[in-house]
Automatic annotation (TrEMBL):
The keyword Transcription does not apply. It comes from Sinocyclocheilus rhinocerous. It holds the Pfam family C1q. Keywords: Secreted, Signal. Its main location: secreted. Gene3D superfamilies: 2.60.120.40. GO terms for cellular component: extracellular region; synapse. The keyword Signal applies. It is found in: Secreted. InterPro entries: C1q_dom (IPR001073), Cerebellin_Synaptic_Org (IPR050822), Tumour_necrosis_fac-like_dom (IPR008983). This is Cerebellin 18.
Amino acid sequence: MLRMKTALCVAMALSLFSRAEATAAFDLLQQAAVSYTGSLPCGGWDCECAFGRQKSCCCIAQPLFELEEATFIRMVGLWEGLSHLNSQIEELTAGCKIAFTAAMLPMSGCLGPFTSNVSISYQSVSLNQGNGYNPALGTFTAPHAGLYSFSFTAYSSVGSAGQRLYQKVQLMKNGQLMASSWEDNREDSEDSSTQTVLLQLRRGCQVYVELMSGRQLCGDTQGQNTFSGYLVYPFSEP
């Protein structure tokens, strides 16, 4: 029993001595590193963390600085790319808020009949964003290339049954027929119809609604004949 206690005491003493010796050795190494004025040949290990956190003795500092610089250059490149993309988006969408809606002025009489097709002038304009619609001519000129949606409503009232409802209006694009609405009967005193179409337009294309020769629109006392359109999405022209 006595021998076991003695051995245990000796082991504890040796352990304490070893720890004290290691601590003393570390302190000596730390002091030597801090006071050393030359370059440390530390072979890639981080002496900044090991000894006094002196930047001059950090062997990994140069790779870190290079990585930091490469990361910064990469971030600058990404920022420039995003700025260029943002400029392209702004350029593409700058003139893309395009929409209009207009109606014929109220009338108790009739528009027509005429001896030739006549463009209808919708002069009561409630919206003309992008200024593409000309109320004097009744013509929409595309400020930007893109896909557009157009709608028109043709309304006519002859006052009483037995009189002839005889109207035909058509949506035109650069002089070409795109859609039409017509009525020819003596059974109804009034009637209306609406057409909606999607058209691909280049910048400068013109869209309008015309009244066919020999036809007429009558009795629109509340401005129910309307013409409207808007840009669905733009696209770049080749």
